[in-house]
Amino acid sequence: MNTIAPDHYKTESGLQVWDVTRYMSGNMAQAFQYVYRAGRKGNEAEDLRKAVAFLEDWVAHPDVPRAVLPEGIEPTDGPSVGGCLLLDIPDGSQWKVQPLMQIISADSYEGEAMNGQPFCGRRLITNETLPRLKKRIAELGGVDG
Fold it and tell me: Which Pfam families does UniProt cross-reference here (predicted)?
């Protein structure tokens, strides 16, 4: 283990969480990291509660800028690296894949959803991601749910 890049943030193929989060906004990067490491270090429910707090703060502050990508970095770069990172998630943690992809999408995409309606990342997080994480916390014996 390297203290700068601990094992609970790495995959067996060598990808690290920061390969996905480096261009994300602060709250969303923190939420992604806590969901990713949940069950890999310490108390899973506690990590998920921290992720929920960061997501709720992000939803509550629409005035804060979303991910800002430097010139030459495409919006699809983070999600494609994210997809590769998520391929390495072990079978017992597959429940994480959808919330992690939703966090990436909500932070990095603006435009239309597949149904032609405007895409709203905050609605996605509020209606799908947060309930899913709170349900998982409740399943672990936490109080959320």
Answer: DUF3310
73 residue type, one letter? I
Q: At what angle do helices 130-139 and 97-108 cross, to 10 degrees?
A: 150
C-alpha distance from residue 92 to each of 51, 85, 117 (Å): 19, 15, 34
The answer to whether 27 touches 57, Cβ cutoff 8 Å, is yes
**What's the predicted TM-score (pTM) here?**
0.78
What's the distance, CA 54 to chain centroid?
10
